[in-house]
């Protein structure tokens, strides 16, 4: 069965790029364009991995991950692997992500091969 990945980003170009890249590798991709939508998706689907942008309107990626974790905790599910992607070198957000013990923190623009490697590693592959 294909691994299910939730991609959270407010930029359509990034969403389409990640969707195409991950689908090509055989993953099932669900998209959320903001944090609130992502939390709702997590309530409906049991994802294997989440990839989120940091800088988004209303709720940033770090806050989104916290809300996703809380939603999963309420459903008695463990924290899933999380990859944070950002185009901004914000040391505070980086520290928050590290404090959350996210699986990977990647800067945009990212190399597709490096991102795929991070995804596969996060999902237990090599």
What does this structure look like?
There is one protein chain. By secondary structure, the protein is α/β, with parallel strands linked by helices. It has a single domain, classed as Rossmann fold. Helices cover 46% and strands 19% of the residues. Strands 2-1-3-4-5 form a five-stranded parallel beta sheet, with helices on both faces. It is globular and about 35 Å long. The protein starts with a strand and ends with a helix. The mean pLDDT is 92.
Topology, element by element:
Elements: E1 4-8, H1 12-24, E2 28-32, H2 35-44, E3 49-53, H3 61-74, E4 82-86, H4 91-100, E5 104-107, H5 112-122
Parallel strand pairs: 1-2, 1-3, 3-4, 4-5
Helix pairs in contact: 2-3
């Amino acid at each position: 069965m294909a691994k299910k990945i939730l991609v959270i980003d407010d930029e359509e170009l990034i969403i389409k790029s990640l969707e195409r890249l991950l689908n090509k590798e055989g993953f099932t991709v669900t998209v959320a364009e903001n944090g609130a939508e992502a939390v709702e998706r997590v309530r409906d689907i049991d994802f294997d991995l989440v990839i989120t942008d940091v800088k988004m309107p209303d709720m940033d990626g770090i806050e989104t991950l916290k809300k996703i974790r809380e939603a999963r905790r309420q459903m008695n599910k463990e924290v899933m692997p999380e990859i944070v992607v950002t185009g901004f070198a914000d040391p505070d957000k980086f520290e928050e992500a590290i404090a959350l013990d996210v699986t990977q923190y990647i800067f945009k623009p990212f190399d597709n091969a490096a991102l795929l490697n991070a995804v596969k590693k996060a999902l237990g592959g090599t």
